[in-house]
Amino acid sequence: MYQLGSKAYEQVNLETRVSQASPHQLIVLLFDGALQAIRLASLYLQKGNIAGKGTAISKAINIVDNGLKGCLDLEKGGEIAENLDRLYHYISQQLVLANLHNDKEKLQSCYDLLNNIAESWREIAK
């Protein structure tokens, strides 16, 4: 019962943060979601929960492909947007391979790449 209440609170908290976020903050939230999903996938992999790992990796891929990649404006963004597009594509491919081969090193590599970009986004806000 406590877990259900906790999940409901997390969902309301997330919905509130999203509804009050600026476009810049929304990107940060997408990074946070992808990073959290990759961390969760690593934990599931470590515990031998293959189904949980697959679900978490699928969530990370969805955020990268439909969230982060979907926010890119390739016409106005120029070379930076094109480079990010290629990097997001690479990360998605690596996540698929990490899922297929239960590869914790690939998961860590994807986490590190996304975290570096996320840190840059966080710095922009300052």
From TrEMBL:
Instruction: Give me any GO biological process, just one.
Output: bacterial-type flagellum assembly
GO cellular-component term (any): cytosol
Highest taxon, organism lineage: Bacteria
**Keywords, comma-separated and alphabetical:** Bacterial flagellum biogenesis, Cell projection, Chaperone, Cilium, Cytoplasm, Flagellum
Question: Could you tell me where this protein is found in the cell?
Answer: Cytoplasm, Cytosol
Q: Which Pfam families match?
A: FliS
InterPro entries noted in UniProt: FliS, FliS_sf
Under the heading PANTHER family, the entry gives: FLAGELLAR SECRETION CHAPERONE FLIS
Q: Which family does it belong to?
A: Belongs to the FliS family.
Q: What protein name is recorded for this chain?
A: Flagellar secretion chaperone FliS
Q: Which organism is it from?
A: Gilliamella bombicola
- What does UniProt list as this organism's lineage? Bacteria, Pseudomonadati, Pseudomonadota, Gammaproteobacteria, Orbales
